[in-house]
Amino acid sequence: MKATTAYLIIQLGILYLLVFGIPASSEWLWGYAVLASLGAVFLYWPHFRYLVSAKPHWLSDENPVNAEDIKVLERALKLLEAPENWDQNDDRHCLIWEKKSLFCAIALAQKEVIGHYSHRSIPAQEVRFTIERNYPKRWDKHPIMDFNNHQATTFDEIQNVLSDTIQRLEQRLKGA
């Protein structure tokens, strides 16, 4: 895979030279670069197709789960145990003494349980997947924040998203 990536980088370099750095009098070099580029695409098509279509690991809902991931979500659920603890106007700037949005509860729970926040962590991603599956029309660019801020979202739905995600991760952990 690394060799294929390196080869594609070389081909992009040749194309760059074609566009920006080769004088018009070097017509033979133009022909070589075009043929080499086309040849690379045909020769390495299976690898090239994989590079173009592969999803990043954080977009997979089959990432391995551990007990800490579940503890993070349980702690987030505890932080949002009462409606007066919930902030429905999330701006993703989290202060520990204020009410918590869904995003801030997950971020703070990560810091408490695992010691740091990671935007693409398993707990945060799994909550995103739950929202995307169950509430597809309540988010636009940022599933957690948009769902939290949506006027139709209720406190019970926030808790249900966390509970559903915990149950799904527990099932995956048992099956692993």
How is this structure best described in words?
Keywords: Membrane, Transmembrane, Transmembrane helix. The chain crosses the membrane at residues 5-22, 28-45. The chain is mainly alpha-helical and 176 residues long. The chain folds into two domains: 2-54, no CATH class; 67-175, no CATH class. The chain is built from eight helices and no strands. It has helices at 2-21, 27-43, 45-53, 67-79, 102-114, 122-134, 143-149, 155-175.
Topology:
Blueprint: H1 2-21, H2 27-43, H3 45-53, H4 67-79, H5 102-114, H6 122-134, H7 143-149, H8 155-175
Short characterization:
InterPro entries: DUF6197. By secondary structure, the chain is mainly α.
Q: What is the overall number of helices?
A: 8
pLDDT averaged residue by residue? 82
Strand content: under 5%
Cα distance spanning the termini: 28 Å
Tell me about the biggest sheet? none
Give me the strand/helix succession: HHHHHHHH
- Supply the number of structural domains: 2
Fraction of residues in helix: 55-70%
Key descriptive features of the protein:
2 domains; mainly alpha; membrane; DUF6197; 8 helices
